[in-house]
Design goal:
Length: 284
């Protein structure tokens, strides 16, 4: 924060004289906010002439007629908007910082926003889709910034510290988050018979599996066909029905079937046994 008085030299003690000062501070988006307040200073003899106000910062006339950086006031600058994203499982938050930016402040902003987005933007299925799109939108903005020359000396503020490139920051491991989440989801779902298709093999760990009776509480999971536990191979699948007697007659090799129904979600798998056993029907 910088305080600079307006006017000429400090007067001698005595009469109180009102002068002004300006307060500069960096706002949330990196731009300058300037507020002017009044202050009274003691003065014995008021000066006969009022000195002209000195510039607060920077060289006189710096950047006049040119686009200046919203963060430090440097030239050259380019109009650009850097975006970020945060995911909160079921809700999302979109972030952005508007320019103009000089080369240094633009690179620093892009690196900071991208670094935060890499670890904050993946948490939620919608966010896993939106997050890479947001980072792709930043590429043209960064290319515009990269074309700028270095800021000219004499700016009213100091350009931001660019910091380390994104690939050298710890947050780069955020690129692994979607891969880990997808692998975890695949691990959890790969055994689910809901995703079984013709050619897959299943195992029913229910005690009735070998009895030849209808099993109303099957515990079926998909297993590799080379697994000794594999009881049957899927020869056909039908969705939106549980009529195994009718549907599975279409498959000559089918000698049993598995049906699933929960609410409006229902399907059946027509099976052929891999182990000698009586005809078995699985119906939860």
């Amino acid at each position: 924060m910088t305080f600079r008085p307006l006017g000429g030299p400090w007067p001698v003690l005595g009469v109180r004289r009102a002068v002004g000062f300006r307060t500069h501070f960096l706002d949330h988006h990196g731009g300058f906010t300037i507020s002017t307040q009044s202050a009274e200073l003691p003065d014995a003899t008021a000066p006969t002439e009022t000195a002209s106000a000195a510039p607060v910062q920077g060289a006189p006339g710096y950047g006049e007629g040119h686009l200046t950086c919203a963060v430090c006031g440097s030239v050259p600058a380019v109009d650009a908007t850097i975006r970020g994203h945060q995911g909160f499982v079921i809700v999302m938050r979109y972030l952005k910082r508007r320019g103009p930016f000089c080369r240094t402040c633009g690179i620093a902003t892009h690196r900071e926003m991208t670094s935060d987005t890499l670890w904050q933007g993946w948490w939620g299925i919608p966010s896993m889709i939106v997050n890479p799109i947001v980072m792709l939108f930043n590429i043209p903005q960064r290319l515009k910034i990269n074309k700028l020359a270095e800021p000219l000396p004499g700016a009213p503020g100091t350009p931001m510290d660019t910091g380390k490139p994104v690939y050298l920051r710890p947050t780069i491991v955020g690129l692994l988050i979607p891969a880990v989440l997808i692998a975890l989801l695949f691990t959890l779902l790969k055994d689910d018979p809901e995703f079984a298709k013709a050619g897959d093999c299943v195992h029913n760990s229910s005690p009735l599996a070998m009895s030849g009776l209808n099993d109303n509480n099957p515990d079926v999971k998909v297993v590799p066909c080379s697994d000794p536990q594999a009881d049957a191979r899927v020869v056909g699948r039908a969705d939106d029905t549980t009529d195994g007697e009718a549907e599975c007659r279409k498959y000559p090799d089918a000698d049993s079937y598995f049906t699933y129904k929960r609410g409006s979600d229902k399907y059946l798998l027509c099976l052929t046994s891999l182990k000698p056993r009586p005809k078995l029907t699985f119906t939860p």
